[in-house]
Please model this.
Amino acid sequence: MISKVIHNLDEALDGLEDNMTVMFGGFGLCGIPENSIAAIRKKGTKNLTCISNNAGIDGFGLGLLLENHQIKKMISSYVGENDEFERQMLSGELEVELIPQGTLAERCRAAGSGIPAFFTPAGHGTEVAKDKEVRVFNGKPHILEHAFNASFAFVKAWKGDETGNLIFKGTARNFNPSMAMAGKITVAEVEELLPAGSLEPNAIHIPGVFIHRIFKGSVFEKRIEQRTVSKHN
Amino acid sequence: MISKVIHNLDEALDGLEDNMTVMFGGFGLCGIPENSIAAIRKKGTKNLTCISNNAGIDGFGLGLLLENHQIKKMISSYVGENDEFERQMLSGELEVELIPQGTLAERCRAAGSGIPAFFTPAGHGTEVAKDKEVRVFNGKPHILEHAFNASFAFVKAWKGDETGNLIFKGTARNFNPSMAMAGKITVAEVEELLPAGSLEPNAIHIPGVFIHRIFKGSVFEKRIEQRTVSKHN
Amino acid sequence: MALDKNGIAKRIAKELKDGWYVNLGIGIPTLVANYVQDDIKVEFQSENGILGMGPFPLEGEEDADLINAGKQTITSLPGSSFFDSSMSFAMIRSKKIQLTVLGAMEVSDQGDIANWKIPGKMVKGMGGAMDLVASAENIIVAMQHTNRKGDSKLLEKCTLPITGLNCVKKIVTDLAVLEVHSELGFVLRERAPGVSVEEIVSKTIGKLFVPDNVPEMSI
Amino acid sequence: MALDKNGIAKRIAKELKDGWYVNLGIGIPTLVANYVQDDIKVEFQSENGILGMGPFPLEGEEDADLINAGKQTITSLPGSSFFDSSMSFAMIRSKKIQLTVLGAMEVSDQGDIANWKIPGKMVKGMGGAMDLVASAENIIVAMQHTNRKGDSKLLEKCTLPITGLNCVKKIVTDLAVLEVHSELGFVLRERAPGVSVEEIVSKTIGKLFVPDNVPEMSI
Model:
């Protein structure tokens, strides 16, 4: 019988082609699909349009794809902390579309929910609203935003089971659930991959129906971007 | 300091007035806020517009408010199994608005998400689409649906904590989370009410920010509508 | 001989493919779960909030917090998950459910379906049917070929209020298996054992295309 | 004497009310969490997906899976919850967060705010700021009264690209506390200790209303 569990990364990327639009879960470096990113770098797929809240840092996260010139366009809410990104953007090599973070999340959730478009107040009166339909609800202007359309979504979860059910940990959840719902093909990498029936059905964040391929990541480096600590007394 | 935990049902219903629009979680008799319904019956609030997937049965669930003539209008997706309901509807005492179940859920979720309107394919070409805006996305017609506007939402959860965090059990979850997000005032009744910090933060279905009042229900009768069983071998 | 309800369910079960997620409506569709072939695995979704629905519980093990969309007590299988209504219809509208099986009062030769309301009778509501038919890419209707008065339920145009337009792909009745094609209308694919093409033709009002060869169903 | 960053944060902390949910932006706003009064309880939300955010972890206890919207390692307090980004902005847009504190490059006397983009400089993006200012009913801006060149940041009209229109309710700067009124523009409510009304007037370009009595802040 068909299994969603894959055992090598070639299988995970099967069908991924140049010029595709691809989603990546994560916020900063937290909860990013490290293993899938490494595999895409190795595969060398080019001209990708990447939907991801951030663009990684030099040498890690999506920074790895940027420095390998695999990304044509970034669709993000915030893209600091990356010299190579800045260089490519200023030189015109890299196209960048900036989107309010909540709108970014909701456009993913909409894609995974069969909602083609929705109204949100975010961005009204700003350049984000340019050429968008404006409509007033309850006396307040809103703009019409559309669901994304992504061929692949790569997400990272804490625990997963063979049927694709996912559980996330802490703030590493972030964009992963909405993007998991949104991908035409969704590939989940997990820290722990368990047999069906191992996860408490009430505790599952994303039901397996949304997940097409799942694998246990071999490495989770989990770099910390801003290590802030309190002093011991 | 302010506490969300309330100790008597009068407090739970404080501010509930005649003619208000009120949401009730539950699917059939599964996961309904039994204790709040009993309290509203006792309080006698009249002319309520009730948003609830179903309308209870004779003598239980919203049937208790129907037989006491407290409901002016039902907004539901399915309303069978209730003689008193049928009598009131056919006699014109009770107004009924039927809405596709997914649209009902999404209009609750939209209300709790600050999304005033969205497009859905459900109901296109049917009487549900009457007087609604139609727009084609990806070659397929969709209709524009609006967020609900409810003064109160009454929901039932399995476990809750003092800060209002909620966890639901099995299919008793149903409409409760979306409605919990949607109420201007949301009242949650729970089977177990625990101190803050007792619930696993990753396992919480609805964060306490959406919950205004919470109490431990004194009785959970949990009637079964259709008892279906398999035979022992 | 015309199929009984279980026969219809058995025939539909043959449409299931390994790895599919399936939503079964109330009535005959529910019976389909009893006839899943051994060599495939399908997961049943119930739109009130479960994936991985199992059979009815053993007597005494009923859980009021665990029901299906027909409000029947059920069980959950290993690998199941629970979720809320908005998530449930999110997966339905975003076409993650590979097959939807539901009953109908009428189907048109354009694939329109009417199954929620009879004017003059107490209206109970559409439940999740309108969401399902509006989004599902693969809808099989399970129904009797004719109504109690003997009138065809396969029409040129539905006379009852519509549940959804141009959505039904296949119909399995007590008499036949038919596909819906945009040009040809109903296409007769299989006959119930012992049922003649003539009987099916005589009981079908909508545009019907009869291929040269219409085999008997194997069930 | 003009307030330092901690002084601004302390003054803003006095605005917090018992039971509020509060979102703090990056920079000065983050410092507000250090000055919550003992007799109230507020819960801090970070839009990347936590309610009940606590202080930075002790050295050696950092968790890469637990950060705030500034990507700093944090802790969670009893009663906290984690959720995904769509849920996080659901609560923001549906006005469940009673107070939003954020920095700004410019504020207009109509309550417009610009804080995300300087033409000609590398644009990093608006993050969650546009969603926050579009929905929050109670926005306090924490900023210096003037920029590094000494020019006022309180203007008639923002010159930089807008983050949101008509949304700022209150501004706490190193020099003053001001409210934004639709008719009167900036209304001077409090002066920093030792700062004169004249100095504030001279450093404010937008329409400024000065009531008869402008007390010194008590911090």
In short: Chain C touches chain B through 52 residues (CB under 8 Å).
